[in-house]
Amino acid sequence: MQPDSRKKTDILLMVALMPPTLIALNYFMLGGVYFSSFKNFCIASAVSLSVLLGVWIAQGMLAKKMLQLFPSHRDTVKRVAIFYSLNLAIVALTVTLICWIFDLFNILGFRFTAEAWTRCLIAGGICTIVNQAVYETEISFGRIKASQLEAEQLKKAQLQTQFDSLKEQVNPHFLFNSLNSLLSLIAIDPNKAEEFVEEMSSVYRYLLRSNEEQLTTLQKELEFIESYNLLLKTRFSSGFQPVIRVEEKMKEYLLPPMTLQLLVENAVKHNIVDPDTPLTVQIYTQDEKLVVINNLQKKNKAVVSNKIGLSNIIQKYNLLKCAGVEIKETVNEFSVVLPLIKNTK
């Protein structure tokens, strides 16, 4: 929830919950005297309100701090327990202060006794439980709405990635080059031509299925990129040289699907790929991160690019609350460092 929206919600909650809290506390403290006249009602309410407003603000600040310390929904029980315990202490002090003020200034004949203090404390405790229940319910609904929105945004980003990737692969230029490569292989190496068709089929199958999951394992991404690399190696021969060095233990880590394909495609699109000046794309893991790096040999004619691929990757990581994508370009190299997400299943 945005800060402005959160502030408006807090004000609405205060407007809705403050009056019944004020009335309950005064009635338990003063009894029927509170409602005996409009004057009595206004005097008692004004005195109590002056104290409760300050307390309410303090409780709001405390609630905000608790959300910062325990932001996850898994910490709800711990946060509520701590928040409620602190709130009870605040309520006890508040009730004591209000009773003392009423007794000190002899407001409506009130006398500070153990019985009166206990009644007020019970009323304050009940109001605190009700108010906190309402607050926690509102927080839960807010989180559900935020989660649904983020899920929709992530789904949209995945569909956009799939569409962009599929559009790139089925455009006439790609099909022409692929069919040309296949035609040459059929003539000189039928077995390799059959392998080429199988790998091409794997590429399209993965592209079509990639929108079914928000995350995929690094193992699956590597299997896909092996097929994709074979198509590129068939097309560019020794001009394209992929190097993959991934630790076995990292293969079960997660990342958004199609990430590697976008980065390899980006490298091929913007650089010269030739046997005399081969393009080397390295993929390796380091400190629970995936590094994709290629030597930089930009084409003489600049390639038109809207950088959707890289933006899409960054957007996905942001939606997954896993920011930290690093993009670096030097005179000789272009690199992208991606955080890998631990698989908890």
Automatic annotation (TrEMBL):
Residue spans crossing the bilayer: 12-35, 41-62, 83-110
- Kindly indicate whether the keyword Zinc belongs to this entry: no
Q: Which residues fall in a coiled-coil region?
A: none
InterPro entries hit by this protein: Bact_2-comp_sensor_kinase, Sig_transdc_His_kin_internal
Keywords of the record? Membrane, Transmembrane, Transmembrane helix
Q: Where is the Signal transduction histidine kinase internal region domain?
A: 162-238
Report the GO molecular function annotations.
Answer: phosphorelay sensor kinase activity
Asked if RNA-binding is a keyword of the record, the answer is no
Q: Which GO terms describe its cellular component?
A: membrane
Record PANTHER family: SENSOR HISTIDINE KINASE YPDA
Protein name according to UniProt = Signal transduction histidine kinase internal region domain-containing protein
Say which species the protein is native to. Answer: Chitinophaga barathri
